UniProtKB/TrEMBL annotation:
GO BP: any one term: carbohydrate metabolic process
InterPro entries (UniProt xref): Cellulose_deg_GH3 (IPR050288), Endo/exonu/phosph_ase_sf (IPR036691), Endo/exonuclease/phosphatase (IPR005135), Fn3-like (IPR026891), GH (IPR017853), Glyco_hydro_3_C (IPR002772), Glyco_hydro_3_C_sf (IPR036881), Glyco_hydro_3_N (IPR001764)
Fibronectin type III-like domain location: 882-950
Keywords in alphabetical order: Hydrolase
Cited Gene3D superfamilies: Endonuclease/exonuclease/phosphatase, Glycoside hydrolase family 3 C-terminal domain, Glycoside hydrolase, family 3, N-terminal domain, Immunoglobulins
Species of the source: Coralloluteibacterium stylophorae
GO terms assigned for molecular function: hydrolase activity, hydrolyzing O-glycosyl compounds
Protein name (database record): Glycoside hydrolase family 3 C-terminal domain-containing protein
Pfam families documented for this protein: Exo_endo_phos, Fn3-like, Glyco_hydro_3, Glyco_hydro_3_C
Similarity annotation: Belongs to the glycosyl hydrolase 3 family.
Length: 978
């Protein structure tokens, strides 16, 4: 799309397409033709419907028109029938947001998208305010709510408010609007010739001069050139189908005030603002912006002046109003490395697989929002978060930071978390791009994999996340990919990420992951991180200056690097909304942790219903895992110390990547609190005989087993360390009423599985983990987590059973390459399916204290969309959440047998039954063609399976899909960018 002139008038059309699906085909064609003839820039649609057998009407129209659709609904995702409003735009969308407007009646919602028209930015808002049953008057409280939202989010971007207000223009209720907005007004009733109005007399109330559609444009930003009523025609009987018609307005943007500091104009796009800034910068300032310093200081020396104390710092450029970059690690909470900011604790979040086990984008968003809020209140504006490497091997030491093995699930949830962070005006990264799937030899090893396989696995996860939320920054990985360092990988950084996908932010190196000046800069690395401490040289200072002087790097590239940093800051709001120091809200934020853990703990095994433990249990023994003190966490740069510090000090390693941390959230204490009448004893499990004797004396035993894992080192094997398997076996032998709680990086073999009564996977559950575990054990919470990874029986089932160099003191040195061509895109369950292997637990597995039944499963192909419809019923006696999953079975001969294509987390009361609609992800349908550089659905006969896990035969429906190519670009970078 060619950039349009900034001064171009905006043609906006607001239209209520109110009707039900029966007459849609006929009306659709009429509406498409009508809109096309009017040639609007933006269409605000009200009363848009998505229903079984009917595509989302806004998306359907948008596709026919070549526009982009944004649909806003208060009906939950997964509801079979969703009402809402939509905005169709033909200019690039910078950002979308929405707000429900209570009192709600069939989907009242306001949505906003910010668009870039040339260098100008506009906020377009669509709404539909319902009339009261009493008489068609707009509800004042809804309008009040809408205005409050607009005020809250007012950011100097010129605003156009469109929609169906269902009230006459003169209504007093509009008074608060009039101060700031001018109305684009047209009336059919003017001139008094009611006979010629286009209204259905049944709807029209002459006395009230009722009008439906309104366009309000921000008074100081626009002049109204034209407003007219358009569209639609009476039916053959001469009756108008409804009281709805369209209003087209032409708005002429007023010229922006002349200022030398154009970048301060919020009416300009982030890109235009960033370019204006760069045009005002000196070369030295640009060179300063494209590198950060280690925020902890060199070799324990003083930290850089102005640095709060965190992983990275770039000083402010005060004369231009460019804020300092304060970059903090926040894989699992806002970090305070080595307690450099004494006593400044943050909330330790549950590990990545825990959040992924919830299968809930909403919970993932809340986790991100918690970290973003805390960061902002601590003064940080960039979070090194969004950890998204795929779990290809349970031994990877950093699996606890990631979100499992499936690109769609991981990308969706990590994208939601990044959105949560950035909604607080804090930049998030996505990291580590790409293929840093093992830690062993991470600074040098080459991850070897074919292009197609990489695009359909690890890269797809990033792509999916970027579609949910474009991060301000992406961190390149340490490793090499097919021989080339990630930070020098022109194909991955410049071509795929920036050009094919349209990523508009900046790429920063991992700490120690920059290896050159010219090569890295030309490949697409934009910012070097803490090079003075971690890299051989500060490449992006003197060496890069020399390279530019010598002509090996174009000066325009330096501008691009600086522009991208600024663009990331501006687009996320970090530039305009600098942090304000304030205390964190410990209670509210810990509630998010507990909710995440309660939704993410996975009940793996419970054959005879040992869990939930009976509330009248008399004597309980708790064994091991330091459960008397807390819950374990992982080590490395993501480690967070929460209130109360480390509950178990002194466990080796006490230095990097340690210390081993237990958060002070004791499952024992939580169990005691919930079982006041019982005797709950604890033995630490060091003495097997002692533990097994005590186990024989109680009604039930809960054994806690921990597996510490950390960045920079992989686990030597899958086993529980320190003889914990023997402890569990001994205790279970003494008392089969033994439940095992695992606090692990990921899957461990369970040689004792058939001898215990239950197994819970509690991952690293975060600072309220003890409470969450206790509540699940006792049935206060019904477990609903589903595995985001396949649980192998042991190493023998992995693509690479033997890998040299794992663990702290490996007997063999690591190899310099990891061969991922073995499984390629078939990560996790796809590998198991391709090889016909039976895991201990399949991907997606998780039990509940209630039971669910699926019924009425049907699949429909609606144009380019594939929808699955079914019902879920809670057939047990407890409220609980289920996660029905949809798997796509690919045509015979396809290299990948099966892909997760969709799911829906749904919470039901006993006896409750609900209809669910799930749109299959186009990513599951499409293959990547590396030669054509495109995503393509080859077409053919596919199966869609509704199942409880990847291992469940479920029910399959067959569909025929025609071939189709998908859109490639997803980011917001202007197409013209270098
Ligand atoms: C890790 C990154 C982290 C960075 C800064 C590196 O060792 O790989 O994830 O953000 O350090 O602490």
């Amino acid at each position: 799309m060619s950039p349009r002139s900034a001064a171009a008038p905006l043609r906006v059309l607001t239209l209520n397409i109110y009707h039900d699906k029966a007459d849609w085909p006929a009306r659709r064609a009429r509406i498409v033709d009508g809109i096309r003839a009017l040639d609007p820039d933006v269409v605000a649609l009200q009363e848009v419907l998505q229903h079984e057998g009917l595509r989302n009407q806004a998306e359907d129209l948008a596709e026919a028109l070549g526009y982009e659709a944004h649909f806003f609904s208060v009906d939950p995702a997964g509801a079979p029938k969703r009402y809402g409003n939509a905005l169709l735009t033909r200019d690039p969308v910078l950002h979308a947001a929405s707000r429900a407007l209570p009192p709600l009646q069939d989907g009242r919602v306001a949505g906003r998208v910010d668009i870039a028209v040339g260098a100008r930015r506009y906020a377009m808002v669509v709404t539909h305010l319902h009339h009261t049953p009493e008489g068609g008057a707009i509800r004042a409280e809804q309008l009040g709510d809408l205005l409050a939202w607009l005020e809250e989010t007012a950011d100097g971007v010129p605003l156009v408010l469109m929609g169906d207000f269902n009230a006459p223009s003169e209504a007093a209720v509009f008074a608060p609007l009039r101060a700031d907005f001018v109305e684009a007004y047209a009336s059919l009733h003017e001139g008094g010739d009611l006979a010629r109005t286009t209204l259905n007399p049944a709807f029209f109330d002459a006395r009230r001069q009722k009008r439906i559609d309104h366009v309000f444009a921000q008074r100081d930003a626009f002049d109204v050139r034209e407003a007219r009523i358009v569209l639609d025609a009476p039916d053959r009987q001469g009756t108008w189908p409804s009281d709805h018609f369209g209003l087209l307005a032409t708005l002429v943007p007023r010229p922006l005030p002349q200022t030398a500091r154009a970048w301060e104009q919020r009416a300009l796009t982030p890109d235009a603002r960033a370019r204006a800034l760069v045009a005002a910068m000196t070369a030295d300032e640009k060179f300063r912006l494209i590198r950060s310093d280690f925020g902890l200081g060199v070799d324990g020396g003083p930290r850089p002046e102005g640095a709060l104390g965190s992983a990275g710092y770039t000083p402010a450029i005060a004369r231009l109003g460019i804020p300092a970059l304060q970059l903090a690690d926040a894989g699992l909470g806002v970090t305070n490395p080595a307690n450099i900011r004494p006593g400044d604790y943050a909330t330790p979040m549950p590990s990545g697989p825990m959040t992924a086990s919830t299968w809930s984008p909403e919970i993932a968003w809340a986790g991100g929002a918690t970290m973003g809020r805390q960061a902002w209140r601590k003064g940080f504006n960039v979070l090194l978060a969004g950890s998204l490497n795929l779990q290809r091997d349970p031994r990877n030491g950093r699996n606890f930071e990631y979100a499992g093995e499936d690109p769609l699930l991981a990308g969706t949830l990590v994208g939601a978390s990044v959105r949560g962070i950035q909604d607080q005006h804090v930049v998030s990264t996505l990291k580590h791009f790409a293929m840093n799937d093992m830690e062993t030899g991470r600074n040098t090893h080459s991850a070897d994999i074919g292009a197609r396989a990489m695009h359909e696995s690890d890269l797809l996860a990033f792509r999916v996340a970027m579609e949910v939320e474009e991060p301000g920054a992406v961190m390149s990985a340490y490793n090499r990919i097919n021989g080339t360092y990630a930070g020098e990988h022109a194909e991955l950084l410049d071509r795929v990420l920036k050009r094919d996908w349209g990523f508009g932010g900046w790429v920063l190196s991992d700490w120690g992951g920059a290896h050159s000046a010219a090569q890295a800069a030309n490949a697409g690395l934009d910012q070097q991180s803490a090079g003075e401490v971690f890299d051989k040289e500060v490449w992006f200072d003197r060496p890069l200056r020399e390279a530019i002087a010598a002509g090996t790097v174009a000066p325009a590239r330096l501008d691009d690097m600086a522009t991208r940093v600024l663009r990331g800051l501006i687009a996320t709001g970090a530039f305009d909304h600098p942090p304000r120091i304030a205390p964190i809200d410990v209670a509210a934020d810990e509630a998010v942790v507990q909710r995440t853990a309660e939704a993410g703990i996975v009940l793996l095994h419970n054959p005879d219903g040992l869990l939930p433990l009976a509330k009248d249990v008399r004597r309980v023994l708790v064994v091991g895992g330091h459960a008397d003190r807390g819950v374990i966490a992982g080590g490395g740069s993501s480690a967070v110390l929460g209130r109360g510090g480390n509950a178990v000090e002194g466990i080796a390693p006490t230095t990097w990547p340690g210390p081993v941390v237990f958060h002070p959230s004791s499952p024992l204490a939580a169990l005691r609190a919930l079982l006041p009448q019982a005797e709950v004893r604890f033995v630490d499990g060091r003495d097997l005989r002692d533990a097994s004797r005590a186990a024989g004396e109680v009604d039930a035993v809960v054994v806690f087993a921990t597996q510490w894992s950390a960045e920079s080192v992989d686990l030597p094997d899958m086993d529980l360390p320190q003889g914990q398997d023997a402890l569990i076996a001994a205790v279970a032998e003494a008392n089969p009423r033994t439940a095992v709680v695992l606090e692990t990086n990921g899957p461990v073999p369970m040689p004792w599985r058939e001898d215990v009564g239950a197994v819970l996977e509690a991952w690293y559950p975060g600072i309220r983990g003890g409470e969450a575990i206790a509540r699940v054990l006792l049935g206060e919470v019904n477990p609903s987590g589903r595995l985001p990874v396949t649980w192998p029986t042991g190493l023998e089932q992995l693509p690479r059973p033997a890998l040299p160099g794992l663990g702290f003191d490996p007997p063999q040195p690591p190899g310099d390459a990891i061969d991922y061509t073995i499984e390629g895109a078939n990560v996790g369950y796809r590998w198991f399916a391709a090889r016909g292997l039976e895991p201990l637990y399949p991907f997606g597995h998780g039990l509940s204290y209630t039971t669910f039944a699926y019924d009425d499963f049907r699949v429909r192909v609606l144009g380019p969309e594939v929808w699955a419809y079914f019902s879920v019923a809670n057939t047990g006696a407890r409220r609980g959440a289920d996660v029905p999953q949809l798997y796509l079975e690919l045509p015979a001969g396809h290299p990948t047998p099966v892909r997760l294509a969709g799911w829906q987390r749904i919470e039901l009361d006993p006896g409750e039954r609900r209809e669910v609609a799930v749109r299959l992800s186009p990513h599951a349908l499409a293959d990547y063609d590396p030669d054509a550089r495109r995503w393509h659905i080859p077409g053919g006969r596919y199966g869609v399976r509704l199942a409880r896990s990847a291992g469940d035969a479920g029910e399959v429906r067959r569909i025929e899909l025609p071939p189709r190519t998908l859109e490639m670009r997803i980011g917001s970078a202007p197409t013209a960018a270098p």
